[in-house]
Amino acid sequence: MKNLSLHQLDDQIHAFVNGQRQERIPTGWIHATRTSIGMTLQQLASRLGLSVPAVKKFEQREQSEAISLASLRKVAAAMDMDLVYYLKPKSGTLEAMMDARIEQKALELMQVSNQAMLLENQILDNHNRARELKRLISEIRQQKLSSLWE
């Protein structure tokens, strides 16, 4: 039967996997997982071939975001777990992130163009502005992706 902390950690892992949670666990994953599965510092140290103070330092370094991925991977393996590491867009998919970036770049180009047109007493109406935005987006999509980050 699951104890409460084990059930809560399962829920938190599930939330991370589904992208519903992004903030860190205050005690760190090592400590939270170790205590949830009922593993003592001594047991983890033994499985890693390290001293208890060394494992405690791992937990502290994780909390301060100073632990290496290699160390996390070793600790995970010692607890019969996998380390999952990835970067994800702040919201949505990579494709949606890139679409937003392309539109932002197109709007920036339009703003420069609009300033020049104002100086010449030319103003696009909403229909032509929308058409120009669509054209710029299409043009930007044909360029190298690296141009979006300049």
From TrEMBL:
CDD domains: HTH_XRE
UniProt superkingdom: Bacteria
Gene3D superfamilies, per database record: lambda repressor-like DNA-binding domains
Any Pfam family hit: HTH_3
Xref: SUPFAM superfamilies: lambda repressor-like DNA-binding domains (SSF47413)
Domain HTH cro/C1-type: start-end pairs: 30-86
SMART domains attached to this UniProt entry: HTH_XRE
Name of the protein: HTH cro/C1-type domain-containing protein
Natural source organism: Aquirufa regiilacus
